[in-house]
Amino acid sequence: MRPDSRLSRMLHVLIHMDAHAGRATSDAIAQMLSTNPVVVRRTMAGLRDAGYVQSEKGHGGGWVLARPLAGITLLDIHAALGSPSVFAIGAANEHPACLVEQAVNDELGEALREAEALLLARFGRVTLADLARGVDARLPAGAAAPAGHVLA
């Protein structure tokens, strides 16, 4: 199963949007993510509906942050993306009457629920401003923010 990278990709985009002045077009974001602008618009629409970004159509239009990074957590973005499963592993349900499968599923299910609760609690404590500070901490002394992924 291919991992769902939407959370990581959208966090990446939002940090870049904060670092660069102006609006980010769907085409520019798509180029940065090596995907299609339609995919970008569909994904960003969920963030817009949740109030984290705004968009304007037409010439000079594009996407901008609607809130400061300090007011957005990883959990917020995870929820805006539809709260996708955080684990690729799960229980088998091919033989629901099998007592072994039931015991395995009960134990796996409990462990996965506990792990997911811990992970989501952590997501709720980390803001996008925290991520941006992590970028700044990686810059060499006196260096400007990297311009490797220009969004405008």
TrEMBL record:
SUPFAM superfamilies: Winged helix' DNA-binding domain
Family annotation (PROSITE patterns): HTH_RRF2_2
Domain of life the protein comes from: Bacteria
Any matching Pfam family: Rrf2
Regions crossing the membrane: none
InterPro entries, alphabetized: Tscrpt_reg_Rrf2 (IPR000944), WH-like_DNA-bd_sf (IPR036388), WH_DNA-bd_sf (IPR036390)
PANTHER family: HTH-TYPE TRANSCRIPTIONAL REGULATOR YWGB-RELATED (PTHR33221:SF15), WINGED HELIX-TURN-HELIX TRANSCRIPTIONAL REGULATOR, RRF2 FAMILY (PTHR33221)
Stated name of the protein: Rrf2 family transcriptional regulator
UniProt organism field: Pseudoduganella chitinolytica
